[in-house]
Amino acid sequence: MTNITINGTPHQVDADPDMPLLWVIRDIIGLTGTKYGCGVAQCGACVIHLNGDAVRSCVTKLSRATGKQIVTIEGLSKNNDHPAQLAWNEEQVPQCGYCHSGQIMSAAVLLRDNPHPTDADIDAGMAGNICRCGTYQRIRKAIHLAAELQRKEGASK
Amino acid sequence: MKQTKRRFPVKAFVFINLLLAMAATMAFTSGGGNRSTDSSPVTVKKDSITSIKAFRQVYTVLMSARCMNCHPSGDIPLQGDDNHLHTMSPRRGNDGKGVYAMKCSNCHQSTNTPGLHTPPGNPNWHLPPANMKMVFQGRTPHQLAKQLIDPRQNGNKDLKKLIAHADDGLVVGAWNPGDGRTLPPMSHDAFKKAWITWLTTGAYAPKGK
After folding, report:
1. Of A25, A45, B16, B76, which is least packed with CB atoms within 10 Å of its CB?
2. End-of-domain residue from the set A75, A98, A130
3. For residue A155, what pLDDT band results from cuts at 50, 70 and 90?
4. Could you tell me if A24 and A62 lie in one domain?
5. What are the pLDDT digits (tens) for A129-150?
6. Cβ contact (<8 Å) for A124 and B91?
């Protein structure tokens, strides 16, 4: 049995320690917001936060997550009101939507580490998340808006 | 009295010089630069022909894809035997471990991920840091040899640390690169032997620019 914590809830998982975390999250725990894209860490659809890092769960083994805090798209905010989620909604970013839980999870790390991202910062931070619908311009716009929302949120506290 | 006065400074002079010579020899044999914690000396026996011959072998390894791909001239690592820019354009970052959601260890696990075109792994996967880029790409044998023994460009390594670096986990990882990747052009044992030979015969740089 492996002890992991997902979105603040502890779980005991009876699975091979080499099982990809994505399998555990989707098939065992039942949280299907995180998507399977390529399976080889090339596309970013499966990005989750592991102790705050935007890891690709398709190549991350269950054993790496033992005792660590996992956050999936379902746990990014309590009411879907993370600045990135609000901005994604405001800018109507997704087309098919498949890649966007990974996009938002990567954007959340970028916004945490750099509250004032430039276009170049966004390109550097988001280059590993592929969108086959080509929504990149709207992603960039939404991240700028999310940064603004985050600043306002910070100022109002 | 005059003779006594003359003899004493001469003896003192000879004694002090002897001490200085011993100190200089010890400093030379320990490699100079930053002090290592191990005080046992490394014996250097200068031999430019043997040294340069060994470095020619070392150079073929360091310029192979398994080494050079993480010592790029720019801030994006390289991939493949053709040394193309890493897909997704991950950036070096200040610490050499990437930026934001594009940290090396977000994809590169502590061990190789099985299968072709999957991320190779190492617990300490990184590029050299931004303040000490240790570029291999584009360096001539002369330039690379000079760079490797300069503590201001080699990560503050003295002779002892350079020798120990042959067994660094990330260096040794080049010989376990994951499925489908070409190995360096000689075994790790042969590389280590050439590396140590080069360093302990004077670390001469091949002539040229």
Report:
1. B16
2. A75
3. confident
4. yes
5. 999 999 999 999 999 999 999 9
6. yes
Residue of B nearest to A111 (CA): B100
- Per-residue pLDDT tens digits for A14-34: 999 999 999 999 999 999 999
Q: How many domains does chain A have?
A: 2
Indicate the pLDDT class of residue B38, thresholds 50, 70 and 90: low
A51 CA: distance to closest CA in chain B (Å): 11
On the question of pLDDT at B45 being above 70, the answer is yes
Distance from CA of A10 to the nearest CA of B (A): 23
Task: Supply the pTM of this predicted model.
Answer: 0.87
* A84/chain B closest Cα distance in angstroms: 14
From chain B, the residues in CB contact with A61 under 8 A are 109
| Cβ atoms B127, B37 nearer than 8 A | no
Dihedral through CA A7, CA A8, CA A12, CA A18, nearest 10? 50
Which one of A32, A53, A75 terminates a domain? A75
What is the extent of the structural domain holding A148? 83-156
Closest CA to B55 of B140, B137, B167, B155: B140
For residue A74, give the DSSP letter.
G
- The shortest CB-CB distance from A40 to any of B91, B106, B115 is to B115
Residue range A38-84, pLDDT digits in tens: 999 999 999 999 999 999 999 999 999 999 999 999 999 999 999 99
CB atoms within 10 A of CB B77: 23
The residues, ordered by sequence, that sit 6+ positions from B125 with a Cβ below 8 Å of its Cβ are B97, B104, B105, B108, B170
What does the block give as tokens for B101?
């959601």
Facing B89 at nearest CB: one of A59, A113, A127? A127
